[in-house]
Amino acid sequence: MTDMPSQAAAEAAGTISPSAYVRREAMVSGVMNALLNSVAFFLLFGGSDPVPVWGRGNFALDFLPQACFISLLAFAVPGLLARQARRKGKLAGLSAEGAPAAQAIWTGALLQAVAALLLFAGGAILLLWVLQLQGIAFLPGLAIKIAFGTAVGVLATWRGVRLALRPGIGAAGNARAATAEAG
User: Fold this and answer.
1) Residue 108: Cβ-neighbour burial (10 angstroms; 0-12, 13-18, 19+)
2) Does an H or E element contain 52, and which?
3) N or C: which end of the chain has fewer CB within 10 A?
4) How remote is the C-alpha of 54 from its chain's centroid?
5) Is residue 129 included in any domain, yes or no?
């Protein structure tokens, strides 16, 4: 048996379970990032077929700002919204006092952006270099950019919301944990 209330009980109380909240935010992030990445790809490469892979402003180097900004915003915005929902008591089983400071979420967002830049964008660029592609057809390029941006956004959202919902975080949560361990 779990200590978290069921989703039906949470809805009856006017709240949402933390796991349902994380799933909902991740799905919203996925849809939004797919749409935004589609628009960005059309704006950047709409007249190109094939899309040039190398050079300034081309397919490979576009992974850098894409990974960085998607990760930063997809972590911070849903994380701050989850913090606010927690502080207003809208999340079943989580106390408002345990919500992290906004600074903790922004710090996490910056660290997530650096990690996405190095790992995801770096990995994508390395893969393109190993494959020695010089151009990529428009539709496969679009599909790759949508999938990449959606995956980065969903992962960042999941991490940001989980940080905001982590039990016992914040000064009050740490005091409770210390009291429980001492007792």
Assistant:
1) buried
2) strand 51-52
3) N
4) 27
5) yes
Structure-token match 């207003």, residue found:
88
Residue 147 has pLDDT above 90, yes or no: yes
- Residue 102 in any domain: the answer is yes
Taking a C-beta distance cutoff of 8 angstroms, is the pair 37, 154 a contact? no
- Joined together, the tokens standing for residue 94 give 């989580």
Count of domains observed in the chain? 1
- Pair 74, 153: CB distance under 8 Å: yes
pLDDT for 71 = 95
**Sign of the alpha-carbon torsion through 64, 103, 161, 170:** positive
Q: Average the pLDDT over 18-23 and give the result.
A: 89
CA triplet 93, 98, 102: central angle to 5 degrees? Answer: 125
